[in-house]
């Protein structure tokens, strides 16, 4: 599965980092990074992050 | 540098606990022009959009109201709950609790509630609309906000009064007379916990994938969500969900009464309902500031901030900041930068999908049914600071 974040609407709340820390992370500058291709074992976490995102900025597909 | 030596820096000063202080006063706007922050009688106030945005996510800050019971020298069951619940937690503990609670607040679950919101709003409007007048708080926002929580908890609407009364008594804890009201607050806290425990027992006996059902599922692994944490979370949803929604909808009505052409526009174009909620929360957020506390010494905007300093992030003043909003007048069709009415960062409101959903449905229906709303007597307001709103709002309108 592919993970994408629409950075035009992401407000860097970091709820995705809380929900799925193996997929999403902040670097020391506070920029958001994520694993772009995940395996089946991580799909549930990615969906939890996508649901939790207050801006609904995470696209899975 | 201590907070005392900041005095020497000639920062503007605001007395935020004066009941006459208004977050929308000229004094606040002048302070915002003079500096990015002001001193207050209790910590610093952050005034501009970019700074509120950044500080809401600042790694050197933690949520700041966790010490409220200790500051008031209060202990007991309310204090225990307050200090251990989600909002007062940070780091790994906060993340764990938030992960456990997320499924119960997911947008998927909330979408299924939308028809219920419409039903509830229609029922309440039908009651008072023929009169052409009402107390908008007593007859709409309060039963509606509480009714939504009843719906979430799987309680019949008829129980709303009971729940509203308990929440109001517990809410006394946020007031200046916290210590004096302690016996009432403790009794209400105990009643609410008993109530919530019964709800959980009932759901355990009749499992279902609803709000409480999802939290019970999270509680299957007690190391992730203990029995006490399960109850604490449900109590927080009740405590945090009722007054906020009640106040925000009252502020919405007041804003639209002052902008009648926008109300007419919403009635014509109900698809603007969601945008209307966002714009109301930008110009009149009920939570006018959120509080943070420095966990270590750091420097921000060349200002040294000492460990333990309290910062009030003034959402209200940030989202009318002329640096970001050229024309800040109320316009539900304008494209706007995000408001801070639900806070932001790790503690961003967990109930926002519910609140956005129920307020959108309410405003859509109200604009269709209540034409030309106007004040019809004295509106009673909470102080225009902290968590604000109307407690009585007589209005008249032309029923449609
Ligand atoms: C218009 C209605 C609402 C407004 C304006 C509002 C506002 C807020 C704000 C500003 C915060 C952040 C506080 C801070 O950072 O210090 C917050 C947190 C929270 N809200 Fe809401 N809220 C509303 C409705 C609700 C509802 C309906 C619920 C639950 C059913 C809810 C549950 C929570 C919870 C659990 C938190 C704590 C989140 C955390 O610490 O991670 N809220 N809310
Ligand atoms: S939760 Fe959403 S808005 Fe927040 S950082 Fe992640 S993607 Fe961005």
Automatic annotation (TrEMBL), chain A:
Where along the sequence do coiled-coil regions lie?
Answer: none
* UniProt keywords, alphabetically: Electron transport, Iron, Iron-sulfur, Metal-binding, Transport
Q: Which InterPro entries match?
A: Fe-S_cluster_ET
Is Chaperone among the key words of this record?
A: no
Transmembrane parts of this sequence = none
Q: Which Pfam families match?
A: Fer4_15 (PF13459)
GO terms (molecular function) for this protein are: iron-sulfur cluster binding; metal ion binding
List the protein's name: Ferredoxin
From TrEMBL, chain B:
Q: State the superkingdom.
A: Bacteria
Record carries keyword Transferase: no
- Give the matching Gene3D superfamilies: Cytochrome P450
Xref: Pfam families: p450
Which keywords describe this protein according to UniProt?
Answer: Heme, Iron, Metal-binding, Monooxygenase, Oxidoreductase
The keyword Metal-binding is assigned to this record: yes
Tell me the GO molecular function terms. Answer: heme binding; iron ion binding; monooxygenase activity; oxidoreductase activity, acting on paired donors, with incorporation or reduction of molecular oxygen
Q: Which InterPro entries match?
A: Cyt_P450, Cyt_P450_B, Cyt_P450_CS, Cyt_P450_sf
UniProt family annotation = Belongs to the cytochrome P450 family.
Q: What is this protein called?
A: Cytochrome P450
Source taxonomy: Bacteria, Pseudomonadati, Pseudomonadota, Alphaproteobacteria, Rhodobacterales
């Amino acid at each position: 599965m592919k993970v994408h974040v629409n950075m035009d609407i992401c407000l860097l709340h970091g709820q995705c980092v809380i929900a799925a820390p193996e997929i999403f992370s902040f670097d020391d500058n506070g920029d958001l990074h994520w694993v772009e291709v995940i395996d089946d074992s991580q799909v549930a976490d990615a969906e939890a992050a996508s649901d939790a995102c207050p801006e609904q900025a995470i696209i899975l597909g | 540098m201590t907070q005392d030596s900041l005095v020497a820096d000639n920062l503007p000063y605001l007395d935020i606990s004066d009941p006459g202080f208004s977050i929308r006063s000229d004094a606040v706007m002048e302070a915002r022009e003079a500096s990015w922050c002001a001193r207050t009688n209790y910590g610093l106030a952050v005034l501009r959009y970019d700074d509120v945005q950044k500080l809401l996510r600042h790694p050197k800050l933690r949520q700041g109201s966790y010490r409220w019971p200790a500051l008031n020298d209060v202990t007991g069951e309310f204090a225990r709950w307050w200090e251990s619940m989600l909002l007062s937690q940070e780091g790994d503990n906060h993340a764990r609790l938030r992960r456990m609670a997320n499924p119960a607040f997911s947008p998927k679950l909330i979408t299924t509630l939308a028809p219920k919101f419409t039903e509830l709003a229609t029922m309440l409007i039908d009651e008072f609309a023929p009169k052409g007048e009402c107390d908008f708080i007593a007859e709409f926002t309060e039963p509606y906000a509480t009714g939504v929580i009843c719906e979430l908890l799987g309680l019949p609407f008829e129980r709303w009064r009971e729940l509203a009364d308990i929440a109001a008594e517990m809410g006394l804890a946020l007031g200046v007379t916290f210590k004096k009201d302690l016996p009432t607050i403790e009794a209400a806290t105990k009643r609410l916990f008993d109530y919530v425990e019964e709800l959980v027992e009932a759901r355990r006996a009749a499992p279902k994938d609803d709000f409480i059902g999802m939290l019970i599922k999270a509680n299957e692994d007690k190391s992730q969500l203990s029995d006490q944490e399960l109850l604490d979370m449900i109590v927080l949803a009740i405590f945090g969900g009722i007054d906020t929604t009640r106040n925000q909808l009252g502020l919405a009505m007041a804003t639209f009464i002052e902008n009648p052409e926008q109300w007419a526009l919403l009635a014509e174009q109900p698809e603007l309902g969601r945008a209307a909620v966002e714009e109301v929360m930008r110009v009149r957020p009920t939570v006018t500031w959120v509080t943070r506390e420095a966990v270590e010494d750091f420097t921000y905007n060349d200002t040294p901030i000492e460990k333990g300093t309290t910062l009030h992030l003034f959402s209200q003043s940030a989202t009318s900041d002329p640096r970001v909003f050229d024309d800040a007048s109320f316009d539900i069709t304008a494209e706007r930068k995000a408001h801070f009415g639900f806070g932001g960062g790790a503690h961003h409101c967990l109930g926002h999908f519910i609140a956005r959903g129920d307020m959108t449905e309410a405003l859509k229906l109200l604009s269709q049914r209540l034409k030309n709303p106007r004040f019809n007597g004295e509106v009673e307001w909470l102080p225009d600071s902290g968590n604000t709103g109307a407690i009585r709002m007589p209005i008249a309108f032309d029923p449609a």
